[in-house]
Amino acid sequence: MHTLSLPRVFSLLFAFCVAATFFGQDLIARQAPIDRKMKTVDSVSINRVMKRAEVTNYENTELYTSWNTSKVHCYANATLPESYRIDLRGFAMPTPSRVVTSKFGYRPAFRRMHKGLDIKVYTGDTIVAAFDGKVRIVDYEAAGYGYYVVIRHKNGLETIYGHLSKQLVKSGDMVKAGEVIGLGGNTGRSYGSHLHFETRLLGVAINPALLFDFANQDVTGDYFVFHANEDYSGSSPRLVAKTDQGSEHTIGGAVAMQQSKHYKVSRGETLYSIAEKTGLTVATLCDLNGISASEKLKPGQILNLRH
Asked: Hey, which residues does 149 pair with through a beta bridge?
């Protein structure tokens, strides 16, 4: 019988170990691309899921249950929340222009409501998104907005940008605050180049001046609280009350102002004149707004009338 010498045995064992090592490394090497590929597939899948969730959050929220890409005003049957806090942080002014050429409110000359602000811009000026959001409508309306863009935002607002000369986004696009969405113009029912800017919540037009201070290129605060029982059809909100029969009427004078949460300062007004108009004391106004009695008020400034 042939026997192996001890050195021969050690040589064979060494060769076996080396072969096993190379075989194992080869298996690992062949598995690595598969692992990397699986990680890539997982990453793509996760991103797709996150993207779908992000889009869904704009289309179906605690406020909105529909996503209409053809009609601006499509919320006639929507149920308004009793109150809703709109987060104004993370904003961008839609234009650096500080000149408001037409305010929010009733226009006697045209016998109709103007449900936005007209901001002086020139044809070709850059217009940007006011907040992060998703573009709902990009369209043209000859007898109204001209070329316009509607964006729905995470804070509950929808903003409308009208009379553009060019639209630079399409329906379904995700946009960031400050991202260019179009160029200023003079299209549609317009008498001179300007931006028509609207802010709405579930179709209810809110005076943009209550949210945006164009003169100072800033928002009026971190938050704005929308109340379903306030009438936003004028230059400042008024409380709408229910009668015993269920019909609505508007409360006028100092009583309405006391129950309304905000007051927009007009040119020439002082704390003393506003205190007399609202039925509050100067001390109360100062306490509510963190200001002194000698404070000089600016036109367009928003004052708190209650906590």
From this structure: 138, 161
